[in-house]
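Chain A, query sequence.
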Amino acid sequence: MKQKTVAVVGAAETTKMGKIPDVSVIGLHADAALNAMADAGLKPTDIDGVACAGISPVELAQYLGITPTYADGTSVGGCSFMLHVRHAAAAINEGLCTTVLITHGESGRSRVGVGGFGRAASSLMGQFEMPYGVTSPPTMFTIPVLRYMKTYGVTEQDLANVAVIQREWAAKNPRASYRDPITVDDVLNSDMIAWPFRKLMCCLVTDGGGALILTSAERAKDFPQKPVYVLGTGESVETPMVSQMEDFTTSKAFRVSGKKAFDEAGVKHADVDHLMIYDAFAHLPLYGLEDLGFCKPGEAKDFINERNTAIGGKLPLNTNGGGLSYMHSGMYGMYALQESVRQMRGIAPAQVDGARISVCHGVGGMFAASGTIIFSNEAP
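Chain A, predicted structure.
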């Protein structure tokens, strides 16, 4: 993809966040969509492309009164929205549509209008993992993280510190689900979920959503908000079964997606001012820092422990508080994208001074898929 030919011109989350017992999944999609359209000064008839995960783009388009010439129902877990941004940029560049709405909505906590998440017994996971008790994210992600910890000498304290620093960022965000300070001891004394994950190392379970609107960079200057340009994109997938990863200490999908985005953007790691790494569990920022190339294998724990990713550090990471303290309705990628856009607009609650380039990196499933988007706020 050519650099800076497409921009985000609308971005918003749902009106409420956290506990929303009176709004269904489709209602959350619509609420976020209408908020993003208001942000961009658009109405449904101005949209000619739709993308979503969790519900069908057919359902979304009909519900909002949109007749699209482009529809994307890619659903690979929490990073689906990074892939949607990538696909939308390609579609706009190709002339398939002019204005793409990407939505997300999940009633992860209240479970209003939620479909089933059961895995069929005939699926690969159903046949080869579930019979052994590997049935939920905490029991799946323990498989690679235990090997990673043993290989690189990563301790429970190291994992706990990830959660502590992200809570510090959350304290600056009025919309964060949890803002009270926590210590490493607090994390280690929280309930055991699945070794080595304690409760405070695991993502929140919330209700909410968000939406983005993309159009060509040429048109972007005519919108009310400061355009955020797409500089580089990447995506990849590896396996639906965490037990079949090529190497438990690194994610192939992370590496491929990240390299593609950096190569496309033409930037160096030292150019990056702000970083979002999907953090469904506390180990994911460690993998992300290493697989994206910010740290060498095994060095991410020290990088975080030295407070490089904390407030005032040289690489601010997960500045909204992340999935551990801000929001995590099930597929977190949209919230990471929203924070990158806020940072590039210069309006984030914990704004990074002078930030010009933001990298937003997501995971889908248990290292099954990955998407990487690099944003810039500098006009082409």
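The chain has one domain: 6-114+204-376. The chain is about 35% helix and 20% strand.
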